[in-house]
Automatic annotation (TrEMBL):
Coiled coil location: none
Record-linked InterPro entries: AA_transpt_TM
Domain Amino acid transporter transmembrane intervals: 66-461
Naturally occurring in which organism (per UniProt): Akanthomyces muscarius
Compartment(s) of residence: Membrane
This protein's record includes keyword Transmembrane helix: yes
Chain residue ranges for the region called Disordered: 1-29
Record-stated family: Belongs to the amino acid/polyamine transporter 2 family.
Bias kind Basic and acidic residues: ranges: 1-22
Main location: membrane
Name by which UniProt lists this protein: Amino acid transporter transmembrane domain-containing protein
Amino acid sequence: MSGATEKHDGAVLDRSISKKQADSSQDNSVMGNEIYGEIAEYDDNVSRADLEKQKTAQGEAHFNRLGWKRLTIILIVEAIALGSLSLPKAFATLGMVAGTIVSVGLGLLAIYTSDVVGQVKIKFPEAAHYADAGRLIAGRFGYEVIGAMFVLQLVFLVGSHCLTGTIAFGNIVDITKTGTCSLVFGGVSAIILLILAIPPSFAEVAILGYIDFVSIVLAIGITIIATGVQASKSPGLHNVAWSAWPKEDLSFADAFISVTNIVFAYSFSICQFSFMDEMHTPKDYKKSIWALGLIEISIYSLTGALIYAFVGPDVKSPALLSAGDTISRIAFGVALPVIFISGSINTTVVGRYIHGRVYKNSVTRYINTPKGWGTWLALVFIITVIAFIIAESIPFFSDLLSISSSLFVSGFTYYFPPIMWVMLIKEGPVWAPHNRVKAVLNLFAFIVGIVVLVGGTYSSIVDIMQNYRNGSIGGVFSCKPIG
């Protein structure tokens, strides 16, 4: 297996070097001056062309090391974190039956749309990020619009993790007793997210993925066991007031916020182009998305159903808050790796997109020269600061996830893939016999995405206004405890 990988990587390097050598003399002149200034210190006796080839070969090799197993781990790092913590509250709102149906149904639909994304990447290997698919669909306009959505969604994700880190530290330390300002923990969370986002290669982050996965499984397991033990003692499992049906007087806004929290949990396809771009065998992506999808559906459905059944309608979001003071502190402590590792990967993805776009025709994009590292560190810092501002401006967990899901995940996971299927990979008429099942699935996914976009955005705005109006949350950049 390793021999095949080395052979493949060598072919990639040869093609990239040949492409560089075939560039116009004007491009070589411009590139040569910049590259020479950046990397001449490495070997003064090597020509500019050789320096360019050397750093390009190193960059291509460094960013082409993912296999399907590592892709699965990196998808787990990006996907299974915040979503699982919001599911029990969503189940409490929708009821056990509807919660389970929505969780399993949206999960299976997300696997299908991710398969569509993978097919597009295989057919158009030049699509390095989701924004590139926008270019394939609608030219420069599609590239810019989807690129902006891509950046905003990932920055919102980092902000969500920063907010969760603040909640975690606040509960571990118990700032209601110590009086520590929650802004301090917000700052600490942002710094940790920044440090973990410094490695630019997804293969490097994948190594942390094993710690990430163990962390979230243990945190969820501790919460499930603790809430189950508490329920068995008082009031007794048979007396927990969970319901198979939606809660009474359920408002449209509450229902849709719960649905969008579940949508958020299946947002892994947004980074799929970016991750697959580092695979040495991209066609193996199917193994990864099915492994991830089934793991997600199992974890989310069991987490949502069990914790809701043990706690009842008063379950909190994130769910770790429902395990009691002592157990919540332990669970949050165990969950710290997943909070920060999963958050940092989103910084890396959006940073790679912006950095690669700015330095598209420069060796700087490989982040293996002084200028490359300097610009990369500056970019990671800026992204983290913006995410921190978002976290402090929208300091309530469910609504922050709902806004993100409604505006962005609805498209990346549900209504963009059907458009790509019709415009980029469909073979023959839509209603040809071999396309009928796919056409129905894509139409359903498109409808789900549009409904979440409109209904979820409206519900998020209504709920945020209500939260501020009734004083249930503090103001922006407040020292008040969060969660």
